[in-house]
Specification:
homodimer, 346 residues, alpha+beta, five-stranded antiparallel β-sheet, three-stranded antiparallel β-sheet, 10 strands, 48% helix, DNA-binding
DNA sequence: CGCTGGCACTCGGCCCCTGGGAGTGCTAAG
DNA sequence: CTTAGCACTCCCAGGGGCCGAGTGCCAGCG
């Protein structure tokens, strides 16, 4: 499928990509030979460019304009030509500082800070997803009577993520009973991955103990109800999108509007990143590859983070397809490692 | 300060405002007499308009264009000419439906749904602030050991808002001790407004009991630490801002960018609404009256909500200064009442 | 055989100009 | 005080022409 290019073709192609990424203008042959010491004449470059266009790697927005990479071209560049760029010391320091102060900061704040840092450093939109619900480990449950028969269920995972929802529990009157129920469930479930909590509850429900102890029975029922219900957009963090507005691809009102409308659909973003989290490692999604996400002309660079070897979630940046991929990959990967490190400490 | 206008002046002025709000185009004298049966000729209208311009209520964007209201003009209109428009039955139903399903929904979800509903119905941006931290009532505290000396403090208020943060607590080793400490604090603080929790803890610290019981002492210290640290933007909810993009005032890229940059400054929005919450009742802030908020050309209509007579927070809409104020005031007030009602039920 | 210089051609962007339309202010008459 | 008429102003959209950047192709050279 992928054609093989000569060394010269590749260096010219890489030059076109890099020049275009920098200037956002179609790249002409003359300009290219001037700025990159390619050692060949513009005419030669033109011939090569014509070949690259035939291959579908370059395109011209209109006749008699320079060339710019196609999405397929970026894909080739990302897969075969580029190398992740190491993050400079200044930026490392900035990142550490931004993610740094764990003063009263939980995972949520850490993830939000990470997105924000990515937004600023990348001049794109940083995004991150919290550890998936099912991947978390049960740590603690609590029932708090609010009013009437309304009980607030508070669920804490091992990593410190708190989840809560109100539930109707008309059968239990006393807060002390609720405390006992929570106690019982805590003993039963602590250390279990949330994905297996449900089956454990079901198993327990069938046991003798549940059949004879009304309180145990209520506890199990309440626990089950508390776990139900998928989280919609929960767990998605998104940095400040305004740096994107400085990119020329979003300089028109129509494109800007499209962009923001796409960003409102958090569910789609979440799915995109969640799916990236399944894979372990860095992914680059270029333009239309995302499918009908509405992020026309955008790419996503994402990677996974985790601690102690386990993948917890993913993070990345979204920006125009014309982005400095080597820098972005380097930045996202470094940030991912840093985030994992922070979580280890947390 | 406010000049008195004749009945005719007022009806012409109101017509100009309403026409401009609808069309977003400067209003001419001929057009006005045609669409509103004013019973006078265009020339008369021109004379009146010239007077209104002298008063600072109208302005023309350039010579030989129609007139549009100034911010001062809107202020006069809002204060003296308009009446809140009752919300139609269809919209009432829509609102109820959107705020309706309390299925596993806490206050957070309710507020988010409210903003979203306002955004959609008003074609502007709905915003809301949750009950202020200090106004809430202590209901429950819990300490959960996460790892090492890290303890997660979970704080539940009477209305079901959950607040949590990790805290270092090297002095307590055992989860059972933590439970006891939480128990003790719960007994001590339940039903107290959060604003008075701190003093209560300080008072207790000086008591005999604290001096001799290590656990009690730790509990009080931990409780104090858990309450410290103001949260920046927490409690602000914001609906989908994209409907605003359809308004002609934001049709240019530059204005759009300004708008989104202003919306990123959540702190400013929060302050604006918080300050509105202090007053009890509906407020209309027109254009520059907000001060350097960066929301140039925008107005805010806000009101307070609460249950059982107490003001809990505020909500409102942000939109272009050229907005249908009667409708907005009606909508925001109705939504505020509805929200209070929902919270009563919750 | 591949590279290079030259040349004609193409096309988008910018500036200028012009005509049309909407609206005003002024004045004089009812 | 109101109204009709009129001259004036100004914005805006559309058309034409110029300029520059860049291409494709061809012939010549190493």
């Amino acid at each position: 499928m992928e054609p093989t290019l000569s060394a010269r073709d590749r260096s010219i192609f890489a030059a076109v990509v890099e020049e275009f990424v920098q200037t956002a203008e179609p790249v002409g042959s003359r300009q290219l030979t001037k700025r990159y010491g390619l050692g060949v004449s513009p005419a030669t470059v033109r011939n090569v460019m014509a070949d690259l266009e035939d291959l579908g790697f370059l395109a011209q927005p209109h006749t008699s304009a320079g060339r710019q990479p196609t999405e397929r071209g970026y894909r080739y560049y990302v897969d075969h030509l580029m190398q992740a760029e190491p993050v400079g010391p200044t930026e490392r320091q900035q990142l550490r500082q931004r993610l740094g102060p764990p003063e009263g900061a939980g995972i949520e704040e850490l993830l939000a800070a990470t997105c924000q840092a990515l937004s600023v450093l990348a001049h794109q939109v940083g995004i991150a997803v919290a550890p998936r619900f099912e991947a978390r480990v049960f740590r603690h449950i609590d029932f708090v009577r609010l009013r009437g028969s309304l009980v607030l269920v508070v669920l804490v995972s091992q990593s410190g993520v708190v989840h809560h929802r109100p539930v109707e529990a008309p059968e239990v009157e006393d807060q002390r009973d609720l405390d006992q129920m929570a106690n019982y469930l805590n003993g039963l479930l602590v250390g279990l991955p949330l994905s297996r909590v449900r089956e454990r509850i079901l198993a327990e429900m069938a046991s003798e103990r549940a059949l004879y102890d009304r309180l145990v029975q209520s506890a199990l029922e309440l626990g089950q109800r508390a776990l139900g219900g998928a989280r919609g957009e929960e767990g998605l963090y998104c940095g400040d999108p305004t740096p994107l507005l400085d990119q020329p691809e979003f300089s028109t009102a129509a494109r800007m509007k499209e962009l923001f409308e796409a960003f409102e659909k958090k569910g789609l973003l979440l799915r995109l990143l969640d799916q990236a989290a399944a894979a372990h490692g860095t992914r680059v999604i270029i333009g239309e590859e995302q499918g009908g996400l509405g992020l026309r002309g955008c790419s996503v660079v994402s990677t996974t983070y985790g601690c102690q070897g386990r993948v917890l979630g993913s993070l990345g940046v979204i920006g125009p397809t014309r982005m400095p991929y080597p820098r972005m990959v380097g930045l996202v990967e470094y940030t991912g490692r840093l985030l994992g490190e922070m979580m280890d400490h947390l």
